[in-house]
Amino acid sequence: MPGPISRRRGGIAWCVAVLLPCALLSTAAAPQQSLHGGTAGASTLEWRACEDPAQKGFECATLDVPLDYDRPADDTIHLAVIRREATEPSRRIGSLFFNPGGPGGPGTAALPAWYDQYVPAGLRERFDVVSWDPRGVGRSTAVRCFGDAEEAAAWWARQPAGFPVGEKERQAWYAGRAELADGCRKRSSKLLPHVSTPDSARDLDRLRDAVGDRQLSYWGVSYGTFLGAVYANLFPDKVRGLLLDGNVDPRGYADGSMDTEARLTTSLRMGSDLGSAATLEQFLELCGRAPASRCAFSAGSPQATRTKLTTLMERLRHRPLGDWTYARTVENLRSSLYFVAPGWTDAAGLLEELWQGRVPPLPPPPSSRVYPGFEQEAAVVCSESPNPRVLSRYAELDTFAAARAGDLGRRWVWDYEWCAQWPATAAHRYTGPWNRPTANPILVVNPTYDPATSYQAAEAMTRELADARLLTLDGYGHTALVNPSTCVNQHAVRYFTTGVLPPVGASCRQDTPPFAPAEPVGGIAAGGGWLADARNPGTRSTRRLT
């Protein structure tokens, strides 16, 4: 499963992928927090200026919460919390909580990196924007399966790049995951059963109370949509407004028993492989239509570009170009599809370099100075989402996924192999119901071509929730947040500030289409261009949050 998302901006690896390693979204050299005895105190936060230069302008705090909510008087753990206060205090509504996905995405790193570029100004003005490192992650009491960052980086360097190809690499992969599991068992055994999504949802409610909000306002992306759905069903009366962006199919993630052999991996049940395949098809279609000046890999037509990619992948399977193997190239391509700008253009440039026989620079490896925490994603997924335990099943699923989703399907299978040997099961899982009536409606947003969380998963999320409205981003990439649409952002601002939902059937377009010259950007008030309500032209929503 591991493999850093290769798109790096501002020195930080970006993690918005559902069930992808958020490990390299680094949290600097934070000391490891341990369990400690004693009852969690009153839900209060003592804010102070953050010390990390990457968090300049933000305030930090910690909150103690029970390790096990069934035994709140026993051990407690720390949650690391971060906020930026509303820029217009006189018009402040409350706090808006943000979860960057993963699982395993540290909010104390993601929020400073994303705040200026992606959080709409209308929300920055009216809300304190708050995030946190979920339990088991980053600066909070964290799962750590290695002694230090250097040991973790050395382990990573021994693993096959991307995913295993052939029996020799598969055996190395199995052995590496067994070594990891053994380290987790030795170093984090007490914490591992208590890092599940319902545990984090209860933490989130403690945080809501700590900032003084009667109800929760929340924007969750990728895995954060699953966390939001669990919260909505554990605390339905506390929902003020939840925006779920880049959606996990809740049944695909959670259904099944941890005590019986799973037939498919989490990713295949959710259709992530199919979402990647559909998005790659769009990449090749649009690249093939574009001139080489806009898409370097274009072969002059969509079909010729598809053939060119097939030929390149076959070439790399037999003759890697330096350290650029078939699997490393597939992993880089999959990751690049998440970000239309600049990911798609960069991916085309990389593929063309390989096609021309030139060796591109490799993505940077995990730092040996900062603990990467790539096991922190597995700690959540493997404890609560069923995956096969029989090692040979993964080679079978490799063949199955390749047949239905091509090269990218293989990568999705191996994301979950470390669950086969994972040493813990969650003490608290949430498997439904998903339709408990909430105090206010939920807004679901998804790109039509999302390489990790498919549009079909967003439709499933909308059906499962008791009261949800789907806003379609007619575009590409993983989540609307990091593939911006002025139209989506204006709907988000209106939803969180006034409670008004988009019209039924509403859709938006991206500000920056792939491989195209810049177009004028418009929003809700831009007529029929950027808000396409043709399916329900007269529909207006009167739903408001209370």
The portion of residues forming beta strands comes to 5-15%
Helix content: 25-40%
The class by helix and strand makeup works out as alpha/beta
Instruction: Please provide the ordered H/E string of secondary-structure elements.
Output: EEEEEEHHEHHHEHEHHHHHHHHHEHEHE
Q: List the uncertain runs.
A: 1-31, 521-546
Number of strands: 12
Shape verdict: globular
Note the total helix count.
17
* First-to-last CA distance: 42 Å
Mean pLDDT: 89
Q: What's the gyration radius in Å?
A: 22 Å
Strand order of the largest sheet: 3-4-5-7-6-8-9-10-11-12
Biggest beta-sheet profile: 10 strands, mixed
Give an overview of the whole structure:
This protein has helices spanning 107-118, 121-126, 149-158, 167-188, 197-210, 223-234, 250-254, 266-270, 272-289, 302-318, 326-336, 340-355, 375-384, 392-405, 407-414, 455-464, 486-498; strands at residues 8-9, 12-13, 48-49, 59-66, 76-84, 94-99, 127-133, 216-221, 239-245, 442-449, 468-476, 507-509. The protein is of the alpha/beta class and 546 residues long. Mean pLDDT is 89; it is low at 1-31 and 521-546. Strands 3-4-5-7-6-8-9-10-11-12 form a 10-stranded mixed beta sheet, with helices on both faces. A two-stranded antiparallel ribbon has the order 1-2. The two termini are 42 Å apart.
